[in-house]
Sequence to fold (271 residues):
Amino acid sequence: MGTGGRSGPRPGKGNAEGSAVTPPAASASCQYRCIECNEEAKELYRDYQHGVLKITICKSCQKPVDKYIEYDPVIILINAILCKAQAYRHILFNTKINIHGKLCIFCLLCEAYLRWWQLQDSNQNTDPDDLIRYAKEWDFYRMFAIASLEQTAFFIGIFTFLWVEQPMTTKKQTNFILLLKALLLSSYGKLLLIPAVIWEHDYTPLCLKLIKVFVLASHFQAIRVTLPINRKLCFLAILSGLLLESTMVYFFQTMEWDIGSDCAIYKSQDF
Fold:
């Protein structure tokens, strides 16, 4: 299989020819998940001597535990963009990706830049005075802070709803840390905001709305993959997050902290 173990931790070599070796850590606890049925698995594949690898078959669904360990990362990314549950499970449970923090900051910067760009475009002030440039710079920092608060409100709305529903939906303790990681990673669609702004055209507002829908769909899939709940509760969790986020937006509009008194970003865009 060559690079079959690229996406997951590689088990150690066997001590005897032809014998399979299970990693000590994997035998102690089930740290992986089957991407098809979401059942726990002790290993993704077995490593025999002479470089012979064999993908582990799930005992529950009788399918490979994680077929994506053989796939190129580009193929995995395409499947994630298509919101396939198998790709999400592979990324969340069977890999050690630790970029969710950096990705969150970068997505917030993209969103802040969009709002700042809309604010500057509405002002149409070409005064080269240093004080004006300094004020515009602080406008960007303000947009970043507001975008961060709104995203925090969105996540709090989701967590609050799921925490209230938890006793009625599952007996297991909800892993909110894993859910937060999943939500942060599923925000990658906001990276499309920068191309939408750079290549501005008549359909830019429509593109921004489609990006918003795509991000919400990614969040929906992340919740469904991470927690053992049905689609209805996932949808209600997203609505709860949007409700709290909309309340935060309304508060900023009332206090005129978001865009000032001479511009109305939120009236024309969803971001």
Observations:
- The two ends are 44 Å apart (CA to CA).
- The chain has a mean pLDDT of 77.
- The chain is about 55% helix and 5% strand.
